Please model this.
Amino acid sequence: MRATFSIVKRLLASNQISFILTAVVALCATTSGDSAVALSNGNYTWLLAGLMPFFFVFYDFKKLMYLGANKRDFYLGALISYGAIALLISLVNTGVHLLIDPLNHTQTVINLMDVCGWTGNPTVVAFLQQTVFLFLVMVFLHVLLSMQPHWYGWITDIVLVAIICIFTPIAPLRAILAGFFKIIMLNSNPLIHIGVCLGLSAGLAAIGLAVLKRKTL
Amino acid sequence: MIELKQVTKQYGHSTVLHQIDLTVDEPGIYCLLGRNGAGKTTLLKSIAGYQNITSGQIKVDGKTISTATLDPGVSYIENFARHFNLPVWKLLRIASEVNEAYDASFATEMMERFELDGKKKFNQLSLGMKTMVSTIVCLASNRPVVLLDEPVLGFDAIMRVAFYEMLTESFRRHPRIIVVSTHMIEEITKTIHKLIILDKGRIRFFDTLQALEEKAYSVSGLKKDVEAATANRNVIGQDAVGGLVTSYIFDQPPKQEASLEIAPLSLQDFFIQMVGRKGGIR
Model:
């Protein structure tokens, strides 16, 4: 496990640009004072979850392999890193939601934790719901990005775009799509939400492993 | 141990490796020679599990190798490999952390021997020094099989000599299979144990240098004398100038006669005759 944790350390250390970019956006983002509602700055911490997989897949993988790491340790390291980042983002956003958002007395502050319906649950539970959702997002992105050099990556892209394009305008299909997002994201039932997110993450991680096994250098 | 059985690799309609059978079963330093485009990099990458072959089987220490092998036990470094832009000492430390078998003392020793400035970041190094860092990482990995793809590219003459010493030192410390692909034919002869010649995706020669010294000869003289002397022998090439003919053989040398000039072939001449001066097997 020493090798795996060294990879975790390296993955996190070599992506300082993601942390800096996220911090800059989260700190500098403002909403007009005239508006009745304001977006919580904590929302922008989710940007980190979107950035990290790009660096892991396209930048770190090859370099770690050249330094003598193996694919198994890399993949485990990446998953552990996603877990750690999900925890960090969730911790910061929960902190912002609890401590900073209430300081704005003039506007209604919208935090994604509210939008997703997690804040109706105890804080620790909402924190966990956010963590598992972000973990799912990062694993999904990792798998999708890992597929891109291959034909099945392009097919997956086309299928995803087709699902969005076809399902959105047709009401019954739109309901299915909305239902899916209600389960994985806009879900106030913590047991179902956490269970589904972890289950989907496990499924995606298995697909990711299969993709990794086909990955060339 | 490396075992290749009927290994074929195709890129589209182009076949790069043709049904290669090869068994490397003893620790040693093996030199892989071949012209540009002969399939050396493809062969090494396939053994390392960096890419899949089209058909056949590759095994390393009994483990079937493909991109699906998560830990193939092979260390491979290609020329111009790019590393994190970190100070050299940090790169070597990361390498020691991500690979538990890593020989950190060897890496440090080599870094000092090559006067690598540990504080310099990777991107600030010259091409030769970058290659040296990659080579040190690969040799210090201590994996049972080490594959170096044209490691002396960008090295000056002094660095090349030092590299050959490093190779010998690394093998002395940890005897294992080390395959080095290079174009510097004559230079590496003092370092290697066996030679593999690859031509147009086929193994043309795999034997010791001693076998080469004992069997590789040029026989020059009048055409009829040379043909008589080399009849029933394995002639790998021939030159003709006027009535004089030089045949290159890989076989027992013919009996010395006054009308013939028999001379041992250098490795470079042997290689040229094996792969054909005008591009391939004759």
